[in-house]
Amino acid sequence: MKKKKETMEELNNTELENQTNANKEDESKIEVEISSSQENSSNEELNLSQQKISELEAQVKHLQDLLLRKAAEFENYKRRTENDQVNLLKYAAEPFIKSVLIVYDDLERSLNHINDDYSFESLKKGLELVYEKFTKILESQGIKKIDAKGKQFDVEFHEALMQQPVAGLESNTVLDVIEQGYMYKDKVIRHAKVIVSASLNNEENKIEE
């Protein structure tokens, strides 16, 4: 009976040991699976990170290329603009010169025919036409004469060369224009050189003194 009991205990111990070993194996399998899962997860995260890095690097390269192209385009635009500005300043008078050449040609034709059968009246008429044409060209460019004769003297527009006493006329009135003055748009580019009136009383006072 005692022997049977010992045998039973041995069987129980063996079964318990087997069960323990089985549990340990299961735990080892679980640990391996967990480790494998963690490793797989780490690999996936690493792959995703590398993929993201690659995408960002590609974006950076694209932006760098775009920036270089834009910088090159801006330099080309800047160079073209500078050339355009230089040419604009250099040839700014071209339209005016083309207009003046028309008058120049008319004058040349008149001079070439001055020894022909031109009468004085014909020559005068031809010069008047050239003068009118030239006047229109100047006006189209914003150039006009300063209307001075008969006006009150104004230092903004006139330059007095001398005074002349005149009876019955207000002092400092422009009597005559020695040299025409001109406006370019709203700017005086040449003052009119004029003779202005002086009061007779002032002149008499000067004589008495």
Describe this structure in words.
It is built from four helices and six strands. It has 209 residues and is of the alpha+beta class. It has three domains: 1-90; 93-141; 145-209, Head domain of nucleotide exchange factor GrpE (Nucleotide Exchange Factor Grpe, Chain A, domain 2), CATH 2.30.22.10. The strands form two sheets. It has a three-stranded antiparallel beta sheet. The longest helix is centred in the first third of the chain and has 89 residues, at 2-90. 4% of the residues are buried.
SSE inventory with pairings:
Blueprint: H1 2-90, H2 94-112, H3 120-140, E1 143-145, E2 158-165, E3 174-179, E4 182-184, E5 187-190, E6 192-198, H4 200-208
Parallel strand pairs: 2-6
Antiparallel strand pairs: 1-4, 3-6, 4-5
Write out key terms for the chains shown:
15% strand; elongated; alpha+beta; 209 residues; 3-stranded mixed β-sheet; Nucleotide Exchange Factor Grpe, Chain A, domain 2
| pLDDT averaged residue by residue | 80
Assembly classification: single chain
CA radius of gyration? 54 Å
Name the poorly predicted regions.
203-209
Task: Return the structural class.
Answer: alpha+beta
Shape, per Cα inertia axes: elongated
Biggest pleated sheet: 3 strands, antiparallel
Tally of domains? 3
At a glance:
This protein has 209 residues and is α+β, with helices and mostly antiparallel strands.
